[in-house]
Amino acid sequence: MVFQNYSLYPHLTVRDNIAFPLKMQKVKKAERYKRAEELAKLVHVDDQLDKKPGGLSGGQQQRVAIARALAKSPSLLLLDEPLSNLDARLRIEMRQEIRRIQQETGVTTIFVTHDQDEALHISDNIMVLAHGTIQQFSTPDVLYDRPANLFVAKFIGEPVINTLPAEALKADLVASVPASILAQAKTAGIRSEAIVPFDNGQGMVAKIHAGLKQARKYGRESTANLTYNGETLLSTEMAGLPADQQEGDFFLTKAGFFLFDDKGALIFGGDSHDE
C-alpha cells in the first residue's frame, strides 16, 4: 500500500526505506540493497539513495514510497490518493510516472482518487462509486462517451457537463428523438464540445437558437456562454465567431448529448438509442 502522506521512516535513508520490507522478511543485506537500487532506478530516485526523507521533495518521497511498496513484488498495489499532497505541476508529472511504473512492472494497481482527471489519465478501467454503490465500471472512454447515469456524466469530464431540464429542449428534439423517449426524459446532458456553431457533418441531434455572451479565449481554448430557453450552456467550440455576435443558430452533436429519466438513468445518447 502507498499512503497519501508517504509514511516513510524519517531516520532511514532512501536505500533503507525501500529495502525495509525485505529486511522484515530476513532477506540478506546485499540482496535487499541490490533490489532497492533496482527499484530506485525504476522510480528515478537512484541519485538520492543516501539521503533521508527530510532531504527530498514531495514527489521524490512519493516515488520512494512506491518503490518500497514494490519491494516485496506484490500481486496487488493499492495507492490511496497518493498525489493529493503535491502541487499541480508535480501531480501531472507523477501521474505519468505512476502509469509508466505500472506498465513496466505489470503489477495490478488500484488507484484511489477524488480527481476524475487523474483517473482518466492513469487508468485502464475506472470504477465510479457514490455512497458506497458502484455507478459504473468501464474504460475511461466509455465512461465519458456513454455514462450509465447522470451522476457519472456529471462526475466524469472537464468542464462539467451542461445539464438542463429536458422539457426546455423538447420542441427542438421532436424530429430526432422518439416520442417514447421524450416522454420519459427528465434531464438533458450536453458536453461543452457538443455545442457547435455549424453542422460539421458528424451527426446532429438538434439545431437551437440561442443568445451568445461572455466569449473568452484561454490560449488555444475558446469558450462561450449561450442562453437558451432561460438556461445557460457552456461551449468550448466557438472559436472564429465574430466578436460582436449576440445570437444565432447552433447545433448539438449526437456525440456528447444525453437524456436521463427521473431516476437519472441514461435513456438516450452514447449510441444507446442505436442498439
Overview of the molecule:
It is a single chain. The protein has 275 residues and is α+β, with helices and mostly antiparallel strands. The protein folds into two domains: 14-124, Rossmann fold (3-Layer(aba) Sandwich); 162-274, no CATH class. 31% of the residues lie in helices and 27% in strands. It has helices spanning 14-24, 29-42, 58-70, 88-105, 116-122, 140-145, 150-155, 170-173, 179-184; strands at 76-80, 108-112, 126-130, 133-138, 162-165, 187-190, 195-196, 204-218, 221-228, 231-235, 247-253, 257-260, 266-268. The strands form four sheets. It has a five-stranded antiparallel sheet, with no helix packed on it. Strands 5-6-12-13 form a four-stranded antiparallel sheet. The chain has a two-stranded parallel sheet with strand order 1-2. A hairpin with a 2-residue loop joins strand 8 and strand 9 (221-228). The two termini are 42 Å apart. The model has no long low-confidence stretch (mean pLDDT 92).
Q: Which properties best describe this structure?
A:
five-stranded antiparallel β-sheet, Rossmann fold, 27% strand, alpha+beta, elongated, 275 residues, 31% helix
